[in-house]
Amino acid sequence: MNTTPGRPEPEIEQAFDRLVDEGQERLERPLLALISTGLLGGIDVGFGVLAYLVVKEHTGDTILAGIAFSVGFVALLLARSELFTENFLVPVTAVVARSGTLRGLARLWGVTLAANLVGGLLIMWILVTARPDLEETAVEVGTHYAELGVSLESFALAVLAGAVITLMTRMQHATESLGVQLVPAVLFGALLAGAELFHCVLDSLFMMGALIAGADFGLGAFAGALGWSLLGNLVGGVGLVTGLRLLRVPQRVEEEREHPDQPVGG
Asked: Residue 254: CB partners within 8 Å, gap ≥ 6?
């Protein structure tokens, strides 16, 4: 039992140390590795989109389609690929603890997001080409997100999406059991898609599929939706979840800043 006044519980400290170590590793990852994991991340999410559209086409039920989409997050976890919004908790914690730099964080975010979108575009083109019977559903779903526009409601949906993904990441890092890590991947993947939250990568894939299938909204609407959802995701993931979590371990953060090279648990 932790008896030191002002210190968090040992389990919280250990989880924090794991986040710092992994965050430092991500921030220092070579460019080619960043690109490959980002491309694969976009492709993995694309398989979740395929499952979503198939179930949506045959049932018309968004909740069931959202549950089906979770296969994409299971693939992300098992394949060790990377989604842009999964980098809101781990590397940010490392930067706050001075085990990484803001420049490294910007590099990680920029490369991963771009690679996610390129990989997503590729898989969506293949998906629509292989399953033209899904074109109508793809247009319907993608148009919904393109038409959300810049509003308080769409921003709130984006904040929730960022918070959901970051909370999923936090729960997965609370354990080293792969079986347990699969649970939040399924639950939060289903919540993200089933509740129609505004996620910059997932909904960009939906919009890409719609455009490839012949939707009549333009690239301007696509870019606007991407930028607005990205901002909301950052507020939800970094501000709402990561920031509040770091308030639980202020003393541990300060120790990491003073002794960044100290071994975990040392």
From this structure: none
How far CA 69 is from CA of 16, 47, 125, 138, in Å, comes to 30, 8, 18, 14
Does the global pTM surpass 0.90?
no
pLDDT in tens, 194-210: 999 999 999 999 999 99
Dihedral angle, C-alpha 126, 141, 225, 183, nearest 10 °: -80
Which class is domain 10-258?
mainly alpha
Tokens of 258: 């003073």
Decide: residue 8, CB within 10 A, 0-12 exposed, 13-18 middle, 19+ buried.
Answer: middle
**Angle ∠(192,197,202) on CA atoms, nearest 5:** 70
Domain spans of the chain, in order of start: 10-258
DSSP 218: -
